[in-house]
């Protein structure tokens, strides 16, 4: 489904502009959690006051110009309701959100042009935030210690019409730029990636450098020093992958889960990056399901909740399977345990850990390429103590 989504994105780029602290579970909503419209490839960000910002995405991925969702909604965990608070002036999909020190959220990429939107939680309003140097989607955005946002790689699309058809040229990007929210300007770094990447992850290390993992089925990693404007090769992955997830664990190690391998099939292999040894190590325990485009959230107790996604070519006739599978990773045992499924299968959905420890899941794509307007709360049972 990601391949279909990329084709749709190319046209749009051209034309459209858990348990509570007291041990009790959160109260079940009187009605199903529902957003105003369906969303695929949207963003979801936690605001300083505990509310959750949800914005953008497609309503479905069918046709050359599928409908986009320009709504900006706020989820209130106290009332368990969504409320539309603003409208974006252009459709954004597969873009990034970065929560700044003052609580403002920078929405960057995934739309025609290079405009940046800034969402201010008080008074819940969108304002223009200048422009980036190069339009991009499926890039990464990392908040640096100095307040700048490092934008890495991604994808640009060129679509031409001739002979009565649509001809697509997909351009994966190598460029790296730093957007400054204070001046609302962006500048390309002197150095660029060694290889173009999209569908990668970027993680800020303790020394201020940024580790780039995977993307475009790469086994090689790269390390960016934004202060020195240098890019160097990093330690290799055990498996090439794209559309995976990287989660920083409580002890500083990085967990890399799933993604798509070189054979275009989803992976059930996970790896750990240890910054002390500067190496990746493939885990002996496999995930319970091959998956990509899933979510992976660090829980308050140090475990990682993994939900949904898709399993490429696993269905009848090689069709992708959208997943409702849920599992949790325990960094102590380095094992994955299966949990009850989601209410519906979801791919390219979003997730957020709320203050009470439960996880809010929103939207995503179903097996019919339709964007889901539903949301749900996942409550992870407490880890059972290990008896010796």
Q: In brief, what are we looking at here?
A:
By secondary structure, the chain is mainly beta. The chain contains 1 helix and 32 strands. Strand 14 (176-180) and strand 15 (185-188) form a beta hairpin.
**Structural domains: how many:** 1
Give Rg in angstroms.
Answer: 20 Å
Q: Do you know the CATH architecture?
A: 6 Propeller
What is the tally of beta strands?
A: 32
What's the shape?
globular
What's the name of the CATH homologous superfamily?
A: Kelch-type beta propeller
Category from helices, strands and their pairing: mainly beta
Number of helices: 1
Q: What is the residue-mean pLDDT, rounded to a whole number?
A: 90
| Cross-sheet strand order for the largest sheet | 1-32-31-30
Multimer state: single chain
CATH topology: Neuraminidase
Helix content: under 10%
Tell me about the biggest sheet?
A: 4 strands, antiparallel
How does this structure look, described?
With 388 residues, the chain is mostly beta strands. The protein has one domain: Neuraminidase (6 Propeller), CATH 2.120.10. It has one helix and 32 strands. It has one helix at residues 2-15, and strands at residues 33-39, 43-46, 52-55, 71-76, 81-87, 96-99, 105-108, 115-120, 125-131, 140-143, 149-152, 155-162, 165-172, 176-180, 185-188, 201-204, 210-213, 222-225, 230-233, 245-248, 254-257, 270-274, 279-282, 295-298, 304-307, 310-311, 321-322, 326-330, 335-339, 350-353, 359-362, 372-378. A four-stranded antiparallel sheet has the order 1-32-31-30, with no helix packed on it. The longest helix has 14 residues, at 2-15. The protein is globular, with a radius of gyration of 20 Å.
